[in-house]
Amino acid sequence: NEEKENRAAELIIANKELAFQNEEKEKRAEELSIANRELKNAEDDIRKLNDELEQKVIERTAQLESVNKELESFSYSVSHDLRAPIRAINGYTKILKEDYADTFDTDGVKILQSIISNSKKMGELIDDLLAFSKLGRKQVTVSEIQMTDLVKMVTEEFVFEDDENIPEFEMGILPNAKGDKSLIKQVWINLISNAIKYSRNKRQTKVEIGAYTKDNLIVYYVKDYGAGFDMQYYDKLFGVFQRLHSQEEFEGTGIGLAIVQKIVQRHNGTVWAESKVDEGSCFYFSLLA
C-alpha cells in the first residue's frame, strides 16, 4: 500500500510538471506567434519603405535627367545664339584693321588687337561649349575600335611649326575596345594635345601612350613630363570652365577635360588622373574590352 501511495504521489507530481510544461509551451507559442506577427509587420514596413525609396529614386533620376537636358538645351541655345554677335565683332574688327589701321595711334592699335584676340578666344569658348552640349544629344554608335590605328592617326594629325618643341611619342600595345570611334578619337585628341601643351616649356617633350587590362576593362593612359598640377585641386580638374593654370601660362577654354569625362561616362567608363607639379601628369580612362 505504501508503495502504491508513493507511486500515486509521483504521478501527481509528474502530472503537475507536465501541466506546467504545457502552460510554458503555450506561453512560448503565443510569444512566438506575437514575434512572427511583429516580424511580418516589420517586413511589410521595410517593403513599403523600399517601394517608396525606389519611387523617390525614379522620380529624382527623372528630375535629374530633365535638369541635365534643360542645361544642355540652354548651353546649346546660348552658345548658338552668341555666334552671330561674335561673327559681327570679328567682321567689324577685320574692317577696322584692314581699312582704318593707319588712323589709329599706338594705343588704338593695341586696343584693336586686344579686341581681335579676345573675340577669337570667345569664339573658341563658344565652339567648345557647343561641342560639350551636343555630347548629351549624340547617339553612341558602338563598334570594335582598332585602337592602335586610331591613336596613330591622331598623333599624325598634329601639325607643328619648325621652331616648336616637336614631341616624341612613345606608344605601347593598345588593345582594341568597344566604343564610338569618333567620340573616342576626341578623347585621344584632347588628352594628347593637353600633354603636348603642358610640356612645351620643357627642353624635350615626351608623351607616353599605353594601356593595361583590369578585370573586363581596358585602361588607357597618356603620360607627360610637363608642368603637372597640384592634386589638392583635383576636384576642379574635370569641371566645365575650370582651369588649374592661368590663361597667360597655357591657353585654353577649360572645357577639354569636361568633354573627355562626359564621353567616357557615356561609354560607362571612368576617367582619372595623377600628377606632380613640374614633374608631369598621367591621365587614365577605362573602356569595356
UniProtKB/TrEMBL annotation:
GO biological process: osmosensory signaling via phosphorelay pathway
Domain Histidine kinase positions: 77-289
EC number in record: 2.7.13.3
GO cellular component: plasma membrane
Main location as per UniProt: membrane
Highest taxon, organism lineage: Bacteria
Organism in which the protein naturally occurs: Pedobacter cryoconitis
Keyword annotations: ATP-binding, Cell membrane, Coiled coil, Kinase, Membrane, Nucleotide-binding, Phosphoprotein, Transferase, Two-component regulatory system
Gene Ontology MF term list: ATP binding; phosphorelay response regulator activity; phosphorelay sensor kinase activity; protein kinase activator activity
Subcellular location: Cell membrane
Catalytic class of the enzyme: transferase
ATP-binding listed as a keyword: yes
The protein, known as: histidine kinase
Coiled-coil intervals, chain numbering: 15-70
Recorded catalytic activity of this chain's protein: ATP + protein L-histidine = ADP + protein N-phospho-L-histidine
PROSITE patterns for the chain: HIS_KIN
InterPro entries in the record: BphY/WalK/GraS-like, HATPase_C_sf, HATPase_dom, His_kinase_dom, HisK_dim/P_dom, HisK_dim/P_sf, Sig_transdc_His_kin-like_C
